[in-house]
Write a structure and sequence with these properties.
Strand content: 15-25%
Number of domains: 1
CATH architecture: 3-Layer(aba) Sandwich
Largest sheet: 7 strands, antiparallel
CATH class: Alpha Beta
Order of helices and strands: EHHEEEEEHHEHHEHE
Number of strands: 9
Helix content: 25-40%
Strand order of the largest sheet: 1-6-5-4-7-9-8
Shape: globular
Structural class: alpha+beta
CATH topology: NADH Oxidase
CATH superfamily: NADH Oxidase
Number of helices: 7
Length: 250
């Protein structure tokens, strides 16, 4: 038996266990909200509608062929319309079903649970003050958590010294609220949620290529530090993935 055998358990299907476990959904317990509510009194920025005119590359084959992990950025930040497009492409809500039971989005999610919250560390985006924001997908808006011009240092420290992350005009930081999946799938939820994180990050890669930007998926970080930077409790909500975004030279 390999020394890694115990750690591999998460990668295996444990759906047969659901026959022996009654989920909170089956018990009739209240479903967790589809979206974390905005803090009371927080400033919100309505994002521009999605306009295909911002796409600099419309050929899907070219976007797939050019997709790479990008770790260097040319001068200039993002336009608000571009940030709006990237947020929509990764977690935007297209339709809400059944009394807020589920949503359709541009990315798949097991059981349509969509257990993620999207935080964006903004340094250089037109019309947006530097700071930490959270995306509100149900209304397609940004919620300001705190204004600060000094996120580069803390983010670089939290990502173990990877300066290309902290120096990006925007850093997407995805947290997970596990109970959204656990409510329906109990212990089988955890593998599904991590697979779902890959779906949304790949959408970000392709959407970036379509607007002349680039990104790089980042899973190497100090959990405590990055949770602190974002402002989550590390237990019922914690960071699972990051991706810096900047303009690149093709």
């Amino acid at each position: 038996m390999s020394q890694f055998s115990a750690q591999r358990a998460l990668m295996k299907s444990n759906f047969p266990e659901l026959d022996r476990i009654v989920s909170d959904q089956k018990l009739g317990r209240t479903q967790p909200p589809l979206e974390k509510p905005a803090p009371e009194g927080a400033k919100q920025i309505a994002l521009p509608s999605i306009d295909p005119a911002i796409l600099s590359e419309r050929d899907f084959h070219t976007c797939l062929k050019r997709r790479r992990s990008r770790r260097s950025w040319i001068e200039g930040g993002l336009k608000l319309e571009e940030l709006s497009f990237l947020l929509w492409a990764t977690q935007g809500v297209q339709r809400v079903f059944g009394r807020n039971y589920s949503t359709f989005r541009p990315v798949p999610s097991g059981g349509a649970r969509h257990p993620f919250e999207t935080y964006v560390a903004v340094s250089r985006v037109d019309e947006v003050a530097a700071g930490m924001y959270r995306y509100l997908p149900l209304t397609h808006a940004l919620c300001l958590l705190r204004e600060t011009a000094d996120l580069a240092g803390p983010i670089t420290d939290a990502t173990l010294g990877q300066d290309f992350v902290g120096s990006a005009p925007v850093v997407f930081i995805w947290s997970c609220i596990p109970y959204r999946g656990e409510w329906r799938y109990n212990v089988a939820a955890h593998k599904i949620m991590l697979l779902d994180a890959g779906h949304l990050c790949q959408n970000l890669y392709l959407a970036c290529e379509a607007i002349g930007c680039g990104t790089c998926a980042v899973a190497a970080y100090d959990q405590r530090l990055i949770d602190t930077v974002v402002g989550v409790d590390g237990e019922d909500e914690f960071v699972v993935y990051l991706a810096p975004v900047g303009r690149v030279k093709h």
